[in-house]
Amino acid sequence: MVLLKIVTFILAVVIGCGGVIALLYAMNGLVNQLPNKTRLTLAKRPRYGNGHATRTHFVAWVYLAPALALLTAYLILPTLNTIYISFLDKRSQNFVGLDNYIFAFTNPTMLIAFRNNVLWLVLVTGFSVALGLIIAVLVDRVRYELVAKSIIFMPMAISFVGASVIWRFIYAFRPAGSEQIGLLNGIITSLGFEPVGWLVERSINNYALIVIMIWLQTGFCLILLSAAIKGIPKDIIEAARIDGASEWQIFWKITIPMIRGTIAVVVTTVVIAVLKVFDIVWVMTGGNQNTEVIASRMIKEMFNYRNFGRGSAIAVILLLVIIPVMISNIRRFREQENSR
């Protein structure tokens, strides 16, 4: 059995890599067989007026064609189909118009999901970026910077499901008088207090879940913001210090303005991750006890209740919320590219 798995792995690597290389050579050969006049006609006007640039431009689109075809087949067409299904009934048989969207914006459980998602957006994004920025500034001045960054970034190597399993043991709750296996309740009871049901107390369970996401995202923010801080010219910092600027003034007047673009990219990236959050909620609470979020409700409507119309409508709403954030990120990347 082990030998079979090893052979399968080797064949997958060889066939996969070899197939991609063969595809690239085949496409390049196909382009080379085309008359130069055809290539000039098919390609867009090049940035630089010469035939080589035009050919290169056209070849680039040929290389992108397989990826675009796969994106169309597995992303664009399913998205269009989801939008279509969102206007149909539970079994995707009859047209119901906007009924599924009306349900999404009026159902009490959905309203709780929207509220929780806003809470996640504000707290996770705010704390993750703020902590990442503060830690990036602080570790930039210590000798064991790499060790500190590695430890803080380590949670990023864990999947959301794996992190949720770890934190289930941290939040584990047993009734008062029983032996506590959860780390937090073990500490609390050792101090003489009653154990806390972190995942069942509705006043705190959402915050307990949000802490997990902050723990995961802070390392990501730290690495990107630290790289941006290191890109600030040292002579600017030294000139500010010579002029009598305090470290606080340097932070607000120099560091923040010079890495504003990176901060914006980090914020929008974390926002997208938070909007799609599902694993943590599903593993920890299953969306019960008022911890429902948009993605978990979508899964329940689609697969638990088999209501394809409502599930598709919720998916479309989630997509419409994410698209502006993605467009903002793309524009930011283009602005940074054009400014170079």
Summarize the helices and strands and which ones pair or pack.
Layout lengths: L1 H32 L2 H7 L8 H35 L13 H8 L1 H32 L5 H9 L6 H12 L11 H8 L14 H26 L3 H9 L4 H12 L1 H16 L3 H6 L9 H11 L3 H31 L2
Which structural traits does this protein have?
single chain, 340 residues, mainly alpha, 75% helix, globular
Structure in words:
This protein has 340 residues and is mainly α. Helices cover 75% and strands 0% of the residues. It is built from 15 helices and no strands. Helix 1 (2-33) packs across helix 3, helix 2 (36-42) crosses helix 3 and helix 12 packs antiparallel against helix 15 (308-338). The chain starts with a helix and ends with a helix. Mean pLDDT is 86; it is low at 48-53.
Quickly describe the structure.
This protein has about 350 residues and is mostly helical. The protein has helices at about 1-35, 35-40, 50-85, 100-105, 110-140, 145-155, 160-170, 185-190, 205-230, 235-240, 245-260, 260-275, 280-285, 295-305, 310-340.
**SS content category:** mainly alpha
Count of beta strands: 0
What share of the residues does DSSP label as strand, in percent? under 5%
Envelope shape: globular
Profile the largest sheet.
Answer: none
